[in-house]
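Collaboration report, partner site 2.

Our partner group contributed sequences for two proteins of shared interest, and the home lab folded both. The records are reproduced in the order in which they were received, starting with the first partner submission.
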Amino acid sequence: MAEASVTGVCGEAMAAMAAVEGSSSPAGLTLGRSFSNYRPLEPPGASQETGVGPSPTFPALGIGMDSCVIPLRRGGLSLVQTTDCFYRLVDDPYVMGRTASANVLSDLYAMGITECDMLMLLSVSQSMSEEEREKVTPLMVKGFRDSTEEGGTAVTGGQTMVNPWLIIGRVATVVCQPNEFITPDSAVVGDVLVLTKPLGTQVAVSAHQWLDNPERWNKVKMVVSGEQVELAYQEAMLNMATLNRTAAGLMHTFNAHAATDITGFGILGHSQNLEKQQRKEVSFVIHNLPVIAKMAAVSKASGRFGLLQGTSAETSGELLICLPREQAARFCSEIISSKYGEGHQAWILSIVEKGS
């Protein structure tokens, strides 16, 4: 697999850190002199006076994975936290609110965590009229709250502001015991990779926008109809608003060894990040990509996204889960059971192989 260009922190919210790592400091600021021993993603060591320190069993997780995990000083507990935010992605403000909520929750779901506490981040655009604000903002907040309640929690606070862009996001936090989350580092040879939603949301949303852009539409109209684009767009919105909470719970039931959610870096970038976290020498070789209907053809015809190359970004995407071989088929059968409601899916992509 080709190397991913950047890695993410807490759902890509801190991706810029990777771009500046190793770069020179601004004029007049010498970081190496005063802060040469500072490691912002590592918890401080044990105090010699109190003998209290972070748990040695579960190291902190930082750059590269979906959530940060920080061992706390007392009780063998860990703080698991993530944050993310979005500009307007779809036309429906209610769906946009649900999508923003579901996307951030997936960072915790990728660690098998199904309960957390929430803060909401909301920025209203200066360019919106008062009438637009009064109509759009309540719908976004309602979608956000409805998704949060579906996830078994509630919005307990947050921050609102006005700036040039319409933005919605959240902070998700939980303090838990080590057995309540699944660290993303235990894949073994013979494991099976399972995906919980089809790929192609970025392509579907873009194709829908191109219906009003003749220059773009002319490049893809020979491989897809307007009706097919509308169907793909509706499926993409439904998928983005669907929580991965059921899959997170089943990760414990079926003894998952590792997982990540697929968002801004595409399935290639996120699977590479997950692969690098493994304690054993393994390779993820993906043979099967479930894709929203017609979106692979749109990606190829447009010359954009690289959907079948694994580089197309997803929003509120799928979980990629490493399961024991004997459990993978049972997981796929269980997640589509009617007792969990509609909209849950799963596909087997490949087997984890030996390698580095």
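Second partner submission, folded after the first:
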Amino acid sequence: MSVGNPLNKSFSCVILDLDGTLLNTDGIVSDVLKVYLVNHGKQWDGREAHKLVGKTLSEAAAVIIDDYGLSISADELLSEFTPMLSDQWCNIKALPGASRLIKHFRSENVQMALASNSPRANIEAKVSYQPGWKESFSVVIGGDEVTAGKPSPEIFLEAAKKLNIDPSKCLVIEDSLTGVMAAKAAGMEVVAVPSLPKQSHLYSAADETINSLLDLQPEKWGLPPFQDWIETTLPIEPWYIGGPVIKGFGRGSKVLGIPTANISTKKYSGVLSEHPSGVYFGWAKLSTRGVYKMVMSIGWNPYFRNTEKAIEPWLLHEFDDDFYGKELYLAIVGYIRPEANFPSLESLVEKIHEDRTVAEAALELPFYAKYKEDSYLRKP
């Protein structure tokens, strides 16, 4: 997490982007593009996904036509593609921390606005599938309601005007570089939550860059703090993964002295994309052996410069032998911190052991201990 200059300001409202900030729209767009391009004899491989972030529909259509050499106009593409996409809006998931953030600010009477480059009708349709969201926003501004979308500041200035709040009192939360540029041009402070992996270094114009909405600290901005942390851990909606234990990177025991029990991520690519990189904890069921406390990392492990996002659980128990090929089931119930880089191997190992101490203590608490009996962990 990076923070700009210390802030002494107190903000009156929060203006949020929608796609990529609150909703995991990118995954749905990619899935629909795969089908759409096959119909045109092309194959979507996701490498151009970053070019679509923060774009209006017309701009995104132009990018796709250019990259894939399609012999159709942007209007033709949108007339074919938009209905396919609309049919999938009901399947868009809220990003981790999004519903928590909206519920929190609403309960604290903090005014919120949505400001998105998407057309107003599309915004309202997407939001309608998220319980409690529609009534939480005082103002909604779509890209079709202004003369120029982001990176123009117009959409944010219009939101502030409708809220009747000075732009300097508005805190913006954005995932795209175009959104950050628009917010700064509007004279607003902005927290960036980059939707593209390993791109945080590009967001230097933001006043703060965080790994995910789970890491937002409203009190830094004079806004009411979250009250749901249990000591130094954050309860999350439990999620589950499992599979046979495989050989990992060969560094857990050999380099770090920490024996991780790796499982294949092949069938969990969707899960990996949904959950922010960071350190989590929960319970692990190892077939034939029992249920154990577990702390795990998700991400690229910057110190080792992973090229692929990985899941590396550490079962907090001393085993006499390895268990490659055994089935491992994980119930992830809490969050500790975002992924971070470290200046030395020693500092990395020290932090991992701190994470173990935090996880072990948390899993003794009744709130987390109850998940040891989770039905997912009762698999034979």
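Feedback sent to the partner group on the second submission included the following. The first helix runs from residue 25 to 39. Residues 1-6, 249-255 have pLDDT under 50 and may be disordered.
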